[in-house]
Each structure stands twice: as C-alpha cells, then as structure tokens.
Specification:
This protein is α+β, with helices and mostly antiparallel strands and about 160 residues long. Helix content is about 15%, strand content about 45%. The protein has one domain (about 1-140): Nucleoside Triphosphate Pyrophosphohydrolase, CATH 3.90.79.10. About 30% of the residues are buried.
C-alpha cells in the first residue's frame, strides 16, 4: 500500500462580517468553495506557506494574526489505476488579516476565483468540509487547537 502525507496551511480571513474564500473544481468538476491555502513545499515553513498560498489564490497579502488549530484526516482507498493508497492530510489553520494587494483570481492554479462571502451565507454554499471546521475553530478557539469531532462531523 502506498502511503502519502500532505501537509497544508490555510487562512481564515474575516473582514466586516465576510469570509474570504477561493473556488476550486471538486472531484466531479462541480465548483466548490475552499479556504485560501494549500500544500507546503519541501523545506518551507507553514507560516510562509499560508502567506504565499493566500496571495497566489486571492491576490491579497496577509498578516498571520494567530494559529487557530490543526486538523488531520486519513483516507484509504483504491486509485483509478495502480496500488491501494493510504492518504493522510495534516491541515494547519491560521487566522489572517488582509494588509495589501487587490482581490483577483488565480490563473493556471488549483483555484479559479476568489470572493468575500457573508458569514451567515457560508452554510448555503457548496463548500469543502474544511471551511466548516476552520470556522468552528475561529468561533470557538479551543485551547488545544483541535476541532472537536462532535461539533464538526464529517471531517
């Protein structure tokens, strides 16, 4: 079985009651909203990863204002071709404040659009589960930085 660990860093940026999200094609091609952020490059600090990824996906420069928590999930399955896989995702979730840049969409990357969404409208969006997990961490700020599975089902 092939093992794969992916470490990524994401930002929760809230301004005037709105959350900054990026849009990405889902597994079936249907667009879904995601937190700005992404995979850490070898040798890169996650703090630098989140700042780089937010700029790439939204055009904004951010200041990291806090560490909200760490989320992890593991999935095993069969790829379309080849060996069975055992994948673990380790997701570091920061809080960020926009300090510069202009809103734009990413060209040639994993996302195709970025926008601000009213916090009360996020639950009605087609979104990845990490958005809910991160908002839960942002709202509740657990001392251990770990999302409680009972509060954030389906992680």
């Amino acid at each position: 079985m092939r093992e794969n660990l992916r470490v990524a860093a994401y930002a929760v940026c809230v301004r005037e009651g709105q959350l900054l999200l990026a849009r990405s094609p889902g597994p079936d091609g249907t667009p879904e909203w995601v937190l700005p952020g992404g995979g850490m490059e070898h040798g890169e600090d996650p703090y630098d990863t989140v700042r780089r990824e937010v700029t790439e996906e939204t055009g904004y420069r951010i200041r990291v204002t806090g560490l909200l928590g760490v989320d992890s999930f593991r999935r095993t399955g069969r790829p379309r071709v080849g060996r069975r896989t055992d994948q673990q995702a380790l997701r570091i979730i920061y809080e960020g404040e926009v300090v510069g840049g202009d809103l734009r969409y990413e060209v040639g990357g994993s996302t195709d659009f970025a926008a601000w969404h009213p916090l009360e409208a996020v639950s009605g969006l087609v979104r990845v589960r990490l958005v809910d997990t991160a908002l839960g961490l942002w709202r509740e700020r657990p001392a251990d930085g770990h999302p409680a599975p009972a509060r954030y089902p389906g992680r």
